[in-house]
Amino acid sequence: MTLLDLVRHRKSVRNFLDRPVEREKIMMCLEAARLAPSACNSQPWRFIVVDDGQLKNRLCQAAFSGIYSMNSFCKMAPVMVAVISEKGKFLARIGSMFRGTKFYLIDIGIACEHFVLQAEELGLGTCWIGWFNERAVKSVLNIPQEKKIDILIALGYYDREKLGPDHGRKPIDKMASFNSY
Ligand SMILES: Cc1cc2nc3c(=O)[nH]c(=O)nc-3n(C[C@H](O)[C@H](O)[C@H](O)COP(=O)(O)O)c2cc1C
Asked: Is the full-model pTM beyond 0.85?
């Protein structure tokens, strides 16, 4: 598959199979994330992989109750990953402040996308999850309260037949132009 094929193939998965994910494959996803570029090579991220079934159930129970229950489909996912932002390098933080751009969030976005694309190549589905009870997740995973969990990723094998329709993206002429805004 070319990279473009892979990107076209990836869709958010909200329907997972009851099948464990091999550690070896998770390690490949982490390796892809590890090699992501970041401002000043700051690497301001930490991935906590939850593949222990009981802990994962506790995590999902905590993360997706009440107003967060729209994401309870994650309970089907055999693996959940919590992505935490760590303090970046001084230079990256200064640059970020002067530019008024949160470089660390860009960095984490790239690392997570490396992760999900590697997963896709391995036949694994993912869904980025931004809507969850962060305080409850921290408590289950012993993450200090002062840390920030920017995103969760649900990971697992899936049934491609059950995926939604097309990507529904804007056409290229609505999102890009050459030589002028
Ligand atoms: C930062 C971010 C947060 C997201 N949060 C959620 C979420 O909480 N629940 C969910 O079902 N999908 C979530 N998604 C998935 C998007 O809804 C999905 O990527 C988008 O609709 C495009 O669909 P596709 O991924 O199938 O191409 C999130 C995606 C991103 C990038």
From this structure: yes
